[in-house]
Amino acid sequence: MPRAPPTPTPRRPTKTATTPTHKSTTRERGVATFDDATRKDWVNGFRKRKTQRRKRAAHDAETRARRERVRERATRRAAERAALGIAEDEGEDGATATRDGDAAEETTYASGASVVVAHGLADAEAEDT
Protein backbone atom coordinates (compact mmCIF):
# COMPACT_ATOMS: atom_id res chain seq x y z
CA MET A 1 0.00 0.00 0.00
CA PRO A 2 1.27 3.40 -0.82
CA ARG A 3 1.87 5.81 2.01
CA ALA A 4 -0.07 8.95 2.34
CA PRO A 5 1.92 12.15 2.37
CA PRO A 6 2.36 13.59 5.86
CA THR A 7 -0.04 16.28 6.84
CA PRO A 8 1.61 19.64 7.29
CA THR A 9 1.59 21.09 10.82
CA PRO A 10 -0.49 24.19 11.10
CA ARG A 11 1.47 27.40 11.24
CA ARG A 12 0.97 30.12 13.80
CA PRO A 13 -0.75 33.12 12.41
CA THR A 14 1.68 35.92 11.66
CA LYS A 15 1.17 39.50 12.74
CA THR A 16 0.00 41.73 10.02
CA ALA A 17 -0.22 45.45 9.76
CA THR A 18 -3.84 45.26 10.78
CA THR A 19 -3.05 43.48 14.08
CA PRO A 20 -3.49 46.00 16.87
CA THR A 21 -0.31 46.59 18.92
CA HIS A 22 0.65 48.85 21.78
CA LYS A 23 0.86 52.54 21.16
CA SER A 24 4.37 53.52 20.14
CA THR A 25 5.94 56.30 22.12
CA THR A 26 8.90 56.65 19.79
CA ARG A 27 6.85 58.44 17.21
CA GLU A 28 5.89 61.14 19.65
CA ARG A 29 8.99 63.21 19.85
CA GLY A 30 9.50 66.01 22.28
CA VAL A 31 11.82 68.93 22.05
CA ALA A 32 14.55 69.24 24.65
CA THR A 33 15.51 72.80 25.36
CA PHE A 34 18.54 73.83 27.35
CA ASP A 35 19.55 77.25 28.35
CA ASP A 36 23.27 77.81 27.80
CA ALA A 37 24.23 77.62 31.49
CA THR A 38 22.41 74.31 32.05
CA ARG A 39 23.80 72.83 28.84
CA LYS A 40 27.35 73.86 29.70
CA ASP A 41 26.97 72.42 33.21
CA TRP A 42 25.63 69.14 31.83
CA VAL A 43 28.39 68.80 29.22
CA ASN A 44 31.21 69.82 31.57
CA GLY A 45 29.84 67.72 34.43
CA PHE A 46 31.51 64.61 33.01
CA ARG A 47 34.89 66.28 33.05
CA LYS A 48 34.36 67.71 36.54
CA ARG A 49 33.36 64.35 37.99
CA LYS A 50 36.31 62.63 36.30
CA THR A 51 38.70 65.23 37.72
CA GLN A 52 37.09 64.88 41.14
CA ARG A 53 37.53 61.06 41.05
CA ARG A 54 41.20 61.46 40.09
CA LYS A 55 41.84 63.95 42.92
CA ARG A 56 40.09 61.70 45.45
CA ALA A 57 42.12 58.68 44.27
CA ALA A 58 45.38 60.64 44.57
CA HIS A 59 44.42 61.83 48.06
CA ASP A 60 43.52 58.29 49.15
CA ALA A 61 46.81 56.94 47.77
CA GLU A 62 48.74 59.65 49.62
CA THR A 63 46.89 58.85 52.86
CA ARG A 64 47.61 55.12 52.50
CA ALA A 65 51.31 55.85 51.83
CA ARG A 66 51.49 58.12 54.88
CA ARG A 67 49.92 55.46 57.12
CA GLU A 68 52.33 52.84 55.76
CA ARG A 69 55.33 55.09 56.51
CA VAL A 70 54.06 55.60 60.09
CA ARG A 71 53.68 51.82 60.51
CA GLU A 72 57.20 51.22 59.16
CA ARG A 73 58.67 53.82 61.54
CA ALA A 74 56.90 52.21 64.51
CA THR A 75 58.20 48.79 63.48
CA ARG A 76 61.75 50.14 63.09
CA ARG A 77 61.58 51.85 66.49
CA ALA A 78 60.37 48.65 68.15
CA ALA A 79 63.18 46.67 66.49
CA GLU A 80 65.80 49.22 67.60
CA ARG A 81 64.49 49.20 71.17
CA ALA A 82 64.56 45.41 71.21
CA ALA A 83 68.15 45.45 69.88
CA LEU A 84 69.20 47.93 72.60
CA GLY A 85 67.42 45.93 75.28
CA ILE A 86 64.96 48.65 76.12
CA ALA A 87 61.58 47.31 77.22
CA GLU A 88 58.44 49.40 77.18
CA ASP A 89 56.44 49.27 80.40
CA GLU A 90 53.15 51.00 79.72
CA GLY A 91 51.12 52.06 82.70
CA GLU A 92 47.92 54.01 83.09
CA ASP A 93 49.83 57.28 83.29
CA GLY A 94 51.93 56.71 80.16
CA ALA A 95 54.89 54.77 78.87
CA THR A 96 58.16 54.41 80.78
CA ALA A 97 61.11 52.88 78.96
CA THR A 98 63.93 51.29 80.97
CA ARG A 99 66.74 48.92 80.13
CA ASP A 100 66.18 45.26 80.92
CA GLY A 101 67.44 44.45 84.40
CA ASP A 102 67.42 48.08 85.56
CA ALA A 103 65.00 49.14 88.25
CA ALA A 104 62.76 52.16 87.99
CA GLU A 105 61.08 53.72 90.99
CA GLU A 106 58.03 55.94 90.57
CA THR A 107 56.87 58.33 93.27
CA THR A 108 53.58 60.20 93.06
CA TYR A 109 53.08 63.26 95.25
CA ALA A 110 49.86 64.77 96.62
CA SER A 111 50.08 67.64 94.13
CA GLY A 112 49.68 65.09 91.33
CA ALA A 113 53.29 65.28 90.15
CA SER A 114 55.06 61.99 89.66
CA VAL A 115 58.81 61.36 89.49
CA VAL A 116 60.45 58.29 87.96
CA VAL A 117 63.92 57.46 89.19
CA ALA A 118 65.80 54.81 87.20
CA HIS A 119 68.50 52.92 89.05
CA GLY A 120 71.40 51.34 87.21
CA LEU A 121 71.60 53.70 84.25
CA ALA A 122 74.57 55.52 85.75
CA ASP A 123 76.52 52.27 85.82
CA ALA A 124 75.77 51.65 82.16
CA GLU A 125 76.88 55.17 81.27
CA ALA A 126 80.09 54.74 83.29
CA GLU A 127 80.89 51.53 81.38
CA ASP A 128 80.52 53.34 78.06
CA THR A 129 83.17 55.93 78.96
Automatic annotation (TrEMBL):
Residues 48-57 have a biased composition (Basic residues). Its main location: nucleus. GO terms for cellular component: nucleolus. Residues 58-80 have a biased composition (Basic and acidic residues). Residues 1-29, 48-115 are annotated as: Disordered. GO terms for molecular function: rRNA binding. It comes from the Eukaryota. Residues 1-11 have a biased composition (Pro residues). Keywords: Coiled coil, Nucleus. It is found in: Nucleus, Nucleolus. PANTHER family: NUCLEOLAR PROTEIN 12 (PTHR14577:SF0). Belongs to the RRP17 family. This is Nucleolar protein 12. The lineage of its organism: Eukaryota, Viridiplantae, Chlorophyta, Mamiellophyceae, Mamiellales.
